[in-house]
Specification:
Elements lengths: L1 H19 L22 E6 L2 E5 L5 E5 L4 E4 L7 H11 L4 E5 L5 H4 L10 E5 H7 L3 H4 L9 E3 L2 E4 L6 E5 L9 E5 L4 E5 L21 H11 L5 E4 L7 H23 L4 H7 L14 H14 L2
Parallel strand pairs: 4-5, 5-6, 6-7, 11-12
Antiparallel strand pairs: 1-2, 2-3, 3-4, 8-9, 9-10, 10-11
Helix pairs in contact: 6-7, 8-9
Length: 302
């Protein structure tokens, strides 16, 4: 039993290290020991008559059916672009015209390379810089790379088809985009709000544990007339959940700040910190992710 626990910890540590460094997961079809896996299965959840969430294969993908085309938000892991497109064809005959990526990670952008070259790919400007370093785009002659970027805000379309893109600052990465569908009172938050958990802070791609709670508060204040949040990897949340998540991250930051001030080591903090009781329902922190977040905050504060 002890060997199993140790092995699990080592695998978890390695997995986090790879995610934080922008690692690309292997394409679907290559299983452990070379054994083939089953075909990718895309699960569909209908939120509105013209807005769907596709689950499986990485981050949650949004499909927004407009008057003359389809906008997709996030394209999952390698090998999942084609299954996404196939599933969309089951939902509507309209072509995919726009693809928006919430941030740079492989489980959100790798499927880009399987989309038609005619698709308009849009990201926050820092995300484009981060994507340019990724092997999957280098190996595919930059197919699926962003064609347009924005700094703080961009509007695409108008009326019922209008989409608003916002950037509120560093959090999960330095390019986290929030995608608002005003007519549907929905926003896709990507992994800036992946779920009720300790977030991954990807310092290699500009993420910040110190800025995280403030960025979430800016998002809460700046996104108006929205009822539903599509999270990066969990179920839908509300704006009240977002406010609570900002408080959760601020409480974590303050606890780590006080611990460093008191002279405690990273390992001491990571080994003793517990989720406050008022945040009932939050996932228990993964050991390596918790330690990495503590270390990131220690690196950022004096």
């Amino acid at each position: 039993m002890k060997r199993a626990v140790v092995l699990g910890s080592l695998l978890l540590a390695g997995a986090f290290s790879l995610v934080a460094s922008g690692y690309q997961q292997p394409p679907a079809g290559g299983g452990r020991g070379g054994q083939p896996q089953g075909p990718p299965v895309v699960e569909v959840e209908k939120l509105k008559d013209n807005l769907f969430v596709l689950r499986g294969g990485g981050g949650n993908t949004a499909v927004f059916v407009m008057a003359n085309g389809v906008t997709v938000v996030d394209a999952k892991n390698p090998g999942w672009g084609a299954p996404i497109l196939a599933k969309i064809k089951e939902l509507t005959p309209k072509p995919v015209t726009v693809l928006i990526n919430t941030h740079t990670h492989g489980d959100h952008v790798s499927g880009n390379v399987e989309f038609p070259a005619t698709v308009d790919v849009v990201v926050q400007e820092n995300t484009r810089t981060n994507m340019e370093k990724m092997d999957i785009f280098k190996k595919n002659a930059n197919r699926g790379m962003a064609k347009r970027t924005f700094t703080d805000r961009m509007t695409i379309g108008s009326g019922a088809d209008q989409i608003e893109l916002h950037y509120f600052g560093r959090a999960h990465t330095n390019g986290d985009a929030w995608i608002v569908f005003p007519s549907l009172r929905l926003v896709h938050a990507g992994d800036a709000f992946s779920g009720k958990n300790i977030p991954i802070i990807d310092a290699n791609n500009g993420g910040s544990g110190v800025a995280y709670p403030e960025t979430l508060m800016k998002a809460h204040a700046g996104i108006r007339n929205v009822d539903t949040i599509i999270t990066g990897h969990s179920t839908q949340m509300t704006m009240n959940d977002l406010r609570e998540y900002a408080d959760f991250n601020r409480d974590f930051l303050n606890a780590v700040r006080e611990a460093k001030k008191a002279g405690r080591t990273v390992d001491e903090v990571a080994g003793s910190w517990k989720i406050p009781a008022k945040y009932a329902g939050y996932a228990e922190p993964q050991a390596m992710r918790l330690r990495t977040n503590v270390q990131n905050v220690y690196n950022e504060i004096p």
